[in-house]
Amino acid sequence: MWEISSGQTPFINYEHENDIVMNIINGIRPKIVPGTPLEYKNLMKECWDADPLKRPDANTLCNKINDINLHYQNMSDELFKSEMDNLDMSKVEENYTSSRLSTSKIHNFGNLPEPRNATEGKSV
Q1: What structural domains and CATH numbers belong to the chain?
Q2: Which region ranges are annotated with the description Disordered (predicted)?
Q3: How many whole angstroms separate alpha carbon 82 and alpha carbon 91?
Q4: How many CB atoms lie within 10 A of CB 8?
Q5: CA angle at residue 78 from 76 to 81, to 5 degrees?
Q6: What is the pLDDT of residue 47?
Q7: How far apart are CA 122 and CA 110, in angstroms?
Q8: pLDDT at 72 (0 to 100)
Q9: Which of 9, 46, 15 is closest to 30 using CA atoms?
Q10: Which among 16, 28, 54, 71 could bridge 23 via Cys, Cβ 3.0 to 4.6 Å?
């Protein structure tokens, strides 16, 4: 979800996957992009819960994203324009303009500590 809102791969500045894994386990999450709708932010945070049983399942996630999409589709043009005008897009572009080709990899890590949830101020 973060990749959709930012247009970037999460933790793109980390060179070593082990560093990423340990930071995520310790509650570090990517900084949420300015201008991300509140409903989408909240859903993303639910998906980041350290306890997998507290995360939404695929059906719930799909339904909530559809609801968010419908909300914005049904919004009046004036209200939508007002929301867009309030975004500081220069800040969004400034923070997320670098790009780097990324591919998915599978890693096996053993003896990892118990995952923790992110806390306010613990983002990169």
Answers
A1: 2-95 (1.10.510.10)
A2: 96-124
A3: 18
A4: 19
A5: 110
A6: 95
A7: 24
A8: 83
A9: 9
A10: 28
Residue 102: how many other CB atoms lie within 10 Å: 12
Using one digit for the tens of pLDDT, what is the confidence trace for 5-63? Answer: 888 888 888 877 788 888 888 999 999 998 888 999 999 999 999 999 999 999 999 99
pLDDT for 58: 96
pLDDT of residue 55: 95
68 near 40, Cβ under 8 Å? Answer: yes
Residue 39 CB contacts under 8 Å (≥ 6 apart), including other chains: 64, 67, 68, 71
Sequential DSSP letters for 27-41 = T-BPPPPTT--HHHH
User: Tens of pLDDT along 89-113?
Assistant: 555 444 444 444 455 666 677 777 8
